[in-house]
Automatic annotation (TrEMBL):
Protein name: Uncharacterized protein
Origin: domain of life: Bacteria
Organism expressing this protein natively: Streptomyces sedi
């Protein structure tokens, strides 16, 4: 095995942030359809790229940051979203125009939402809704974004990594990096390490203790924790690989977002692929050759991450997520909060009431949430390393909690569909109600 939030009587009533956003979004109407999913709710990227950084701005407005919004802040959050309605409608209209220009220019690189959402919001603020010259403006903006991508494109990465002479050099570099990687480190004092991690996790929701976090980094706690992934089956149990032992990656030459393997099984190409789909991300990356060499070396490091601060983040996430495993106990306040968030999801309750068949079904997906959490956390911190963005002490809880929110969003619709196919039959033979309140 890969090694409930307390409430006081004075706690004010709260409302789920996602529910508040969905309610106001529905009020704003059909003009927001280009930014919405099939259920009429904001896309995950709409929240990530538009609502959070540009409208709600939780860094400046921490009252809007939590998954549960305090009762006294509910009306203000609603008012903030409603006030942004006209600009969001104009953003949606510009996004439609930019996608049309993209097709005209036969551009296939990158995800249009990643590339254009924030630029469309900017256009909506400076120009308002698309006017008579919208076609010209859209073509110019799309061409400018393509040009700004420079050498950091998926096509350029593929060409660079597959050129025969360079590929031979990279394979030799990869072999040397893995030869030098310590096959085994002195076994850490697990009790002391766990206590140190729990000490930080106990206060992280209110703001991590910077001194304690710095001490973990200085003491190499992240690398020490990674040593326990080396025995056969250890990384497999954490969902980070499908193999019994961690093996060096291939260079690779193709990738698909829909079918990426677990983190430790990804080729060098697959590891860099996701970061190349956003113009915003590429702006903060080094040149292509340096980026590839850095990634090759990174694969041989503990947690397959280059920075000790990032490894400590993984160690903290691994420890906190123990509470998400079947029968897992929360060793810290952070673990209790994560477990409480997960277990109060209605689809989780329904899935756990189903009998476990040979194929696992919804109950198995719910039972493996910890593995999904650790995979998603690795992807997040790996992306930060690519962009040179350290995890600040003040951002640590937002990251740990945000990863679980993301996993919940991904699993909710899929598990609900599996539950519907299962017919809602629970272990005692009673049909579970289909409603979720």
């Amino acid at each position: 095995m890969c090694p409930g939030e307390a409430l006081t009587a004075e706690a004010p009533a709260t409302m789920p942030r996602a529910l508040l956003i969905a309610e106001v979004w529905a009020e704003l109407g059909a003009e927001l359809a280009p930014l919405s999913n099939g259920l009429g709710q904001p896309l995950a990227r709409t929240v990530k790229l538009l609502l959070d950084p540009l409208v709600l701005r939780p860094v400046l407005n921490p009252r809007f940051a939590a998954g549960q919004v305090r009762g006294e802040d509910v009306d203000e959050l609603r008012a903030t979203l409603r006030a942004a309605g006209p600009r969001l409608a104009a953003t949606a209209a510009w996004f439609t125009r930019l996608k049309r220009a993209r097709r005209t220019l036969r551009i296939a690189e990158g995800n249009p939402q990643d590339l254009y959402f924030q630029r469309c919001f900017e256009l909506a603020g400076t120009l308002g809704p698309p006017g008579a010259d919208a076609e010209r403006v859209a073509r110019e903006v799309v061409a400018e974004i393509r040009e700004s991508a420079g050498e950091l494109t998926v096509a350029a990465l593929r060409s660079h990594i597959t050129e025969p002479a360079r590929a031979a050099e990279l394979r030799a570099l990869l072999a040397r990096a893995w030869e030098r990687a310590p096959a085994a480190r002195p076994a850490p004092d697990r009790g002391a390490l766990t206590a140190a991690l729990d000490g930080v996790l106990d206060g992280v929701a209110g703001g991590a203790d910077r001194a304690a976090l710095d001490a973990l980094v200085a003491g190499g706690a992240g690398a020490a924790d990674a040593a326990s992934l080396l025995p056969p089956g250890a990384a497999l149990a954490c969902g980070l690989t499908l193999r019994e032992r961690i093996e060096p990656p291939e260079l690779g030459e193709s990738a698909s977002k829909r079918s990426l393997p677990p983190p430790f099984d990804r080729s060098v190409f697959e590891r860099l692929f996701a970061g190349f789909t956003s113009a915003f991300h590429r702006e903060s990356m080094p040149g292509l050759s340096e980026l590839v060499v850095q990634e090759v070396r990174r694969t041989a490091e503990p947690w397959q991450l280059a920075e000790e601060s990032t490894r400590v983040t993984m160690a903290l996430g691994r420890r906190a997520s123990t509470a998400l495993a079947p029968g897992g106990e929360a060793g810290s306040d952070a673990g209790a909060r994560l477990a409480a968030r997960w277990r109060r999801e209605p689809f989780v309750h329904r899935a756990l009431r189903l009998p476990r068949g040979e194929g696992g079904g919804p109950g198995e997906a719910v039972g493996r949430v910890r593995e999904a959490y650790l995979r998603r956390l690795w992807v997040r911190v790996h992306g930060r390393e690519l962009r040179g963005e350290p995890v600040a002490a003040g951002d640590l809880w937002d990251l740990l909690d945000g990863v679980l929110r993301s996993v919940i969003m991904d699993q909710r619709d899929r598990v609900r569909a599996e539950l519907d196919r299962a017919g809602g039959v629970v272990a005692d033979g009673v049909v579970a109600d289909g409603g979720e309140r």
